[in-house]
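Question thread 4412

I'm putting together a teaching handout and wanted feedback from people who do this every day. The idea is simple: show students a protein as raw sequence, then show them the structure tokens that encode its fold, then repeat with a second protein so they can compare. Below is the first pair exactly as I plan to print it.
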Amino acid sequence: MIGIEHVTWPPAPLRTERLVLRESEARDRPAFIELFASAEVGAHLGGARPRDELERRVPEVPGRRPGSFVTELDGAMIGMVTLAQRDPDRPGHIRPEAGEAELGYTFLPQAWGRGYAAEACAAALDWFAAARPGEPVVLCTQTANDRSVRLAAKLGFTEVERFEEFGAEQWFGVRSPLTGPPTGSPT
């Protein structure tokens, strides 16, 4: 298996025109709780989680694992971008042995519609392409999540298949280093 598990972590913070992508810190905990308690955010992710449960279970420094970037705007967390190994037991793979890196992203509703997700994901994909040259990245989202499907296309992902999972139709795509957009923020 090749993918995110073979990169040096954490990298130096990634900086874009407006954002910083960095490892999680204790000060991010309230934003993590807000993110996972949000009904809007959870609409295509299996629903919001109860805030009281999150208050009890979210660790002091949440989301601290290889491939998990906090996306920061003006010193505050607005979302997260992840690159993680896709679970080999899930449907949707481009290799017989599985092990692909999978891009994921979630942002607080107040950050939606401003291009932050595209900017952050492009930076994370550029970092991964430098860390693991030649490795493709996959992405899976509900077909009902129009915004996410449009973002995937903007980032250079092409549809490979659709399948039923978690009670909904899923869009599964791949971004090959040869077919992805040029490095830098997508247009």
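The second pair follows. I'd like the answer to focus on this one:
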Amino acid sequence: MEQHLETSDWISLGSAITAAAALIYTRTQARAAKKANVTAEEANAISRDANLVSQEASETAKQALNLARTQFDAEQQARHEADGPTFRVESATKEHSGEWFSNIRVQQVGGAALEIANVTVSGADVRGVRRGQYSDDWIQGPIEWKIPAPGTALELCVELEYEHLDPVNVRIGLQCRATDGRTWSREVTAQPVAPPPPTREGRRSRF
């Protein structure tokens, strides 16, 4: 015997189907959202890792660039120093004439031709530079050695402390400038010594 559904029954069935569909849709959406969240977290993690790698690569590049610049500057400085002037103490003697004096001859032996070299002397037993051994005029400030070039020399008359101790170290500083504006700092040390006493001529034998 066939059963006929009343209108109210159709309404109840429709509501049940709608509720079931809504539940299935909600669960499906929840699973999709969960999966989407996991995917987003994975994407964020990958993005963070990529950013970290990018930062490390950028830092490595900066370090490599700084190292290259340091090496370049060092090579430029070494080349500059190699082009600079060289000096030596050609002679350094001392003698007593009321005070102790040292006569020092400094020679440029190589390197660039200079426009000027400002020369100073210093040392524990160094009093200063005079214009001459028998002059009372002190030279104040640096001595201007104009247009030095390889082969040329500068003579200094340095007064020493009366009760100095040997060996005396006279430090000679040279602030050098070339005509093209390049500059160098140089220093040489002189240790003046007294010349040997004159030898007596032996008496001639009488026959």
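Top answer:
Good format. For the second protein you could add a caption like this: The chain is about 35% helix and 30% strand. The CA atoms of residues 38 and 44 lie 10 Å apart.
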